[in-house]
Amino acid sequence: MNTRYVFQPTSVQQLRDHYDLIIVGSGAAGLTSALQAAELGLQPVILEKMPRLGGNSSRASSGMNAAETLVQLQHHIVDSYQDFYQDTWRGGGQQNDPGLLHYFTEHAAAALTWLSAHDINLTDLTWTGAMTVQRTHRPASQAPIGSFLITELLKQIEQAQIPVFTKSVVQKLLMSQQRVTGVRVQIDGTTHQLHSKAVILATGGFGASTALLQKYRPDLVTLATTNQPGTTGDGLQLAQQIGAQLVDMQQVQVHPTVNQEGSHPYLIGEAVRGEGAILVNAQGQRFVNELATRKQVTAAINQLPGKTATLIFDQQVRQRVPAINFYEQIGLVQTGNSWEELAQHYAWPVPTFLQTIATWNQAVTKKQDRQWQRTTGLSVPLTQAPFYAIKVAPAVHYTMGGLAITPQTQVLNQQQQVIPGLFAAGEVTGGLHGNNRLGGNSIAETVVFGRQAAQQVFKYCQHWAKPK
Fold first, then answer.
1. Does 318 participate in catalysis according to the annotation?
2. Cβ distance 163 to 38 under 8 Å?
3. Of 217, 294, 320, 374, which one is the catalytic site residue?
4. pLDDT beyond 60 at 468
5. Would you say 440 and 128 are in contact if contact means Cβ atoms under 8 Å apart?
6. How far apart, in whole angstroms, are the C-alpha atoms of residue 233 and residue 229?
7. What are the pLDDT digits (tens) for 414-448?
8. Are 447 and 114 in contact (CB under 8 A)?
9. Is the preceding omega at residue 386 within 30 degrees of 0, hence cis?
């Protein structure tokens, strides 16, 4: 019988006054940096304010982007760092920080190899929006990447005996001689001062902070959010207290396909569209290239009456995206034994909807979508019953803005100078994604820059350990 893995956080009685490295946040960036730091001989500690570990990373669905990988070659896909760069550059409105983007696209394959060396294998591929080739890596089981990755990283954290404290609210970054030297943290109601050689902020974005959205994007405050409740910009505020610079704070991504009919919004992963699903309007007609950028698909849905659409797919798509089983379990999926049955349920004109399906299936067969110029996710026609539909609408999903960092993950102050001892990785940082993040790039970012942060902390500690 399969039993779900449960990680046991460290008891507060084991808290020490000094560590080589303090990591704030337990998402994929925080866990990756802790594991990499331990492998380099450092003694890290992870502080997580929420009772549950994993942050927003645990909710990621599609996969991890990387180019020039062995997995791609095994699937007969020839890719390049340059093409990965160009897709992300175009997808981000050519507003991405070139230095960050070069490092990211040129080190994602190495990050994938590093995961594989830890028996965390992503050997299947899917599509995400605005990618010109399949470079979104996911588990062979096709399970959602987030919970899979967090679970596997926590197993490694446990094996490496890295201390992890939950319900730990970091209140302040400690400074000495203009260097970050630790944190003040409240754990179980008691305040502690923890000292370290460096701090990595891996606290995520601010997509669940009404206050910060009101400040930077008041037009989005009324939208639902896909973010977990702890995603409130804590790391931004901690770093700002010591003069850190913020960039791109107005760049907030709205995800186009979020079911909002129940008590909680549920993101319907981009892999559903990547494997062949289409979107239709209230007349049962397609209205957009479903694998354009999230920004473009969101804009198209927002132009529809009611600002909602319906995701349509068949049994073949469902078999390629196991997350749909979960969507059905919680009541998000409408099923029909025929396309006519689905059309009648949603009151779409049956002839119009059947023509939509026929036109799409012809486009898949010819690998040419004359209507909306979709060029990816044209693998199989929608022909295998039963047939499915999920209502979707846009919701706040990801914040592209955050702390200004160098490609070495060093946090910069208002004068563009490095703040010694302070590093950051993941969604807490800004600049990498420009004005639109491509699906699959966030998980890649956490592993690429989580590793980089730990490596740069190692070098930093070596520097300060040298005799003066």
1. no
2. no
3. 294
4. no
5. yes
6. 11
7. 999 999 999 999 999 999 999 999 999 999 999 99
8. yes
9. yes
